[in-house]
């Protein structure tokens, strides 16, 4: 019976798998198709006579045969299927269902049957299901690409690879002082062809840092691999119990788990991830050479030649820079001690400077001989890269502001634009803020990751850009910000664990703090018990937390100078916020950004926020927000000019209440994949100048009422895959200058006749097929420039 079953299943699965290559040519969903094929191959393995011999009931055999045959038909017609999207990548709905059905078929036919064959008991258990889950970025555990320019790592990379691939090596420690390039070396290792060939998609990267959370790490691993835990992970014990099940099922390739930046005191974390799983290896990076590791690789600093090469590259020393005395260059390079991080930072700070400046730096740094034996010795030397001329002292201030966020966090550029617009009176569009971040990137003090932009976006759209910063640099920012007494600091950055509040905060005779920027980060064990502080001069308040329930601190009510509020939930689930009513009394609050917050309850008692100009919602649960408000939106938010809604996955229909905010100038709704309807009331937003509806893949059409938006200058519907036509009366948008319709693959109908009335239209961004639709009217619209967008599927920003 088992042999016959094997033959039947082999024949059917072979037909389905054979259909996959044709489907690849027609669709973009390679990941899902590969997973479907992998699922079928796993099903084949279950019936392999050499490994598992199962005597299944005839009704199960028949059902499996019918299920797999059904999948073959769906695969062959996938190019004609309706498409759904997740994270900007499209896939046929039917294939998503096929993938789940096959997983269930495997589970039903194996978990329910434990048979004896030749006297041996065999039990197959597939408890982990692949299910459609709520949106969650899956780049948590992906390995970032190494820097574009590296030197001196080829030999260490080969040595590390040789050691890692030894059969007897299951756990390997890569150790070196801070700033030596441990993470860069690991990134290069993961790009090696032999390593990629061996571990394939089973390279899992976890940044551990100072305060690791095992539960969150395991949840991220499940999310990254697209698996759903058998039951909700409530504790560290639950996490460690379920992780080996997932690891056992992500084969057949070997597994490499990388635990990056393990601090002294967290070395026991490594023990929790040790499992008796075949072909499973762990690579740990740390500043500490933990003695418990049997196999260790010590990464050395760069030699003089490689150090000189890296420094000259970072300082852009070319032939025309020969006016810098060679001896000065050598002294500075020696002073950097062979640390790649320091070489890049110091080189960047001296880039383009006069020879006198170089020599002046040498005099300040004594004889140029520095030694880096510990982090406490490294910090003073890193400070040397923070020497800015008077006209660029704001760049140093921006650098220190980056310490307001969690270590290794991807900081959205939009947050920094909001902060710096108020703290330093920079422009609201963010042009100067981005220029400052570019300056920090050039000096190797931060890393700005920008998505490729079309001509219409270069000066106005930064919502998908991020900033990252090495943990050593964050420590430097914190160190620089803490040199003055608490009450005199311009920025006060606090990290609170559990109930361990700072002593000065609990003092009865507490003096007012004069900080303009206040950042408070709490961990998962914080109980929400605040002591009152006096912060009358705070203009920017950053609250980072990780709990499911969070209470705004009472002192917010008296922060009358507060202009920017950023509430960022870094936990795994959406959070409920209490005490939100404290904001209603603030006379100067202009900008609010909420991340991963359930906001429906916040709007029920909405009171006027007369100064509020901008609201940003990122990965929030919107629910019935703006629908059940006690007062009309135009009265509650009389000066609101901009609304940004990004990755709010429960948004199906734009709340009608938002259409009452008639003073609105910018409305951006991006990556809300379930959004299918824009209300007719959107035509009431007669002051709207920018309307961005990007990557809303279920949106079917734009309402005809947008014809009333006579001030609209930018209309962006890029990557709205379901829109098949432009509004009939789009020609009445008499001030429209930019139309971005890149990625609107279903927009194949001829343009409306009214299109010829778009006399002010200057830029249309689209692909080659859509560009042909505009050719007949280019002679009529004399200002028009058609920009053909290159195909660019780039998700690298998710890794940062």
UniProtKB/TrEMBL annotation:
Molecular functions per Gene Ontology: ADP binding
UniProt KW keywords: Plant defense, Repeat
GO terms for biological process, alphabetical: defense response
InterPro entries noted in UniProt: Apaf_helical, LRR_dom_sf, NB-ARC, P-loop_NTPase, WH-like_DNA-bd_sf
NB-ARC domain segment(s): 155-316
Protein name: NB-ARC domain-containing protein
Lineage of source species: Eukaryota, Viridiplantae, Streptophyta, Embryophyta, Tracheophyta
């Amino acid at each position: 019976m088992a042999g016959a079953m094997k033959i039947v299943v082999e024949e059917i699965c072979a037909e389905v798998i054979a259909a996959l290559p044709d489907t690849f040519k027609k669709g973009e969903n390679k990941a899902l198709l590969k997973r479907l094929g992998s699922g079928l191959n796993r099903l084949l393995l279950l019936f392999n006579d050499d490994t598992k011999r199962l005597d299944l009931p005839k009704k199960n055999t028949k059902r499996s045969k019918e299920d797999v045959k059904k999948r073959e038909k769906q695969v062959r017609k996938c190019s004609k299927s309706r498409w759904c999207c997740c994270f900007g990548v499209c896939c046929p709905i039917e294939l998503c269902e096929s993938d789940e059905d096959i997983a269930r078929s495997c589970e039903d036919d194996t978990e329910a049957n434990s048979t004896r064959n030749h006297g041996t008991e065999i039990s197959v258990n597939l408890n982990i299901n692949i299910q459609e889950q709520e949106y969650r970025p899956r780049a948590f555990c992906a390995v970032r690409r190494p820097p574009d320019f590296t030197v001196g790592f080829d030999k260490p990379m080969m040595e590390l690879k040789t050691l890692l691939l030894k059969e007897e090596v299951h756990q390997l420690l890569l150790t070196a002082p801070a700033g030596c390039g441990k993470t860069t070396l690991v990134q290069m290792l993961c790009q090696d062809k032999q390593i990629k060939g061996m571990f394939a998609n089973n390279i899992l990267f976890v940044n551990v840092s100072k305060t690791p959370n095992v539960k969150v790490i395991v949840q991220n691993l499940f999310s990254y691999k697209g698996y759903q835990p058998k039951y909700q992970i409530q504790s560290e014990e639950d996490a460690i119990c379920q992780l080996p099940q997932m690891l056992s099922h992500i084969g057949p390739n070997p597994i490499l788990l990388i635990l990056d930046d393990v601090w002294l005191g967290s070395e026991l974390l490594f023990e929790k991830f040790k499992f008796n799983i075949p072909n499973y290896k762990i690579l740990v990076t740390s500043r500490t050479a933990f003695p418990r590791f049997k196999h260790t690789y010590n990464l050395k600093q760069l030699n003089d030649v490689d150090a000189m090469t890296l420094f000259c590259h970072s300082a852009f020393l070319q032939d025309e820079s020969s006016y810098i005395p060679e001896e000065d260059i050598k002294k500075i390079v020696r002073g950097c001690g062979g640390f790649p991080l320091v070489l890049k930072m110091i080189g960047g700070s001296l880039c383009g400077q006069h020879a006198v400046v170089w020599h002046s730096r040498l005099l300040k740094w004594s004889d140029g001989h520095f030694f880096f034996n510990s982090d406490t010795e490294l910090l003073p030397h890193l400070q040397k890269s923070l020497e800015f001329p008077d006209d660029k002292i704001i760049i140093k201030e921006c650098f220190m502001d980056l310490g307001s966020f969690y270590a290794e966090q991807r900081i959205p550029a939009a947050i920094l634009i909001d902060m710096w617009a108020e703290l330093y009176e920079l422009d609201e569009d963010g042009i100067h803020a981005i220029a400052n971040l570019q300056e920090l990137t050039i000096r190797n003090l931060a890393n700005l990751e920008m998505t490729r932009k079309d001509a219409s976006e270069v000066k106005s759209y930064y919502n998908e850009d991020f900033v990252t910063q090495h943990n050593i640099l964050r420590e430097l920012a914190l160190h620089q910000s803490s040199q003055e007494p608490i009450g005199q600091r311009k920025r006060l950055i606090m990290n609170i664990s559990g109930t361990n509040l700072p002593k000065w905060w609990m003092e009865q005779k507490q003096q007012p703090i004069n900080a303009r920027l206040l950042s408070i980060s709490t961990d998962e064990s914080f109980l929400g018990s605040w002591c009152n502080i006096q912060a009358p001069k705070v203009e920017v308040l950053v609250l980072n937390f990780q709990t499911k329930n969070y209470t705004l601190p009472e002192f917010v009510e008296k922060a009358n100078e507060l202009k920017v509020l950023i509430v960022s939930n870094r936990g795994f689930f959406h959070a409920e916020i209490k005490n939100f009513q404290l904001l209603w009394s603030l006379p100067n609050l202009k900008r609010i950004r909420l991340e991963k917050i359930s906001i429906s309850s916040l709007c029920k008692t909405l009171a006027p926020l007369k100064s509020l100009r901008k609201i940003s919602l990122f990965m929030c649960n919107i629910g019935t927000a703006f629908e059940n408000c006690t007062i009309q939106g135009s009265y509650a938010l009389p000066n609101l000019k901009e609304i940004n809604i990004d990755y709010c996955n429960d948004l199906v229909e734009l709340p009608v209440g938002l259409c009452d905010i008639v003073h609105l100038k910018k409305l951006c709704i991006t990556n809300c994949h379930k959004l299918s309807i824009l209300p007719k009331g959107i035509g009431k937003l007669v002051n709207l100048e920018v309307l961005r509806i990007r990557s809303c893949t279920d949106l079917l059409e734009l309402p005809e009422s947008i014809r009333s938006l006579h001030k609209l200058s930018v209309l962006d519907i890029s990557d709205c895959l379901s829109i098949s036509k432009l509004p009939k009366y789009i020609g009445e948008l008499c001030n429209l200058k930019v139309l971005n319709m890149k990625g609107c693959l279903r927009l194949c109908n001829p343009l409306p006749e009214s299109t010829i009335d778009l006399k002010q239209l200057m830029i249309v961004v689209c692909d080659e097929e859509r560009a042909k639709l505009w050719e007949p009217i280019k002679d009529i619209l004399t200002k028009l420039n058609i920009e053909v967008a290159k195909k660019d599927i780039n998700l690298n920003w998710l890794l940062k």
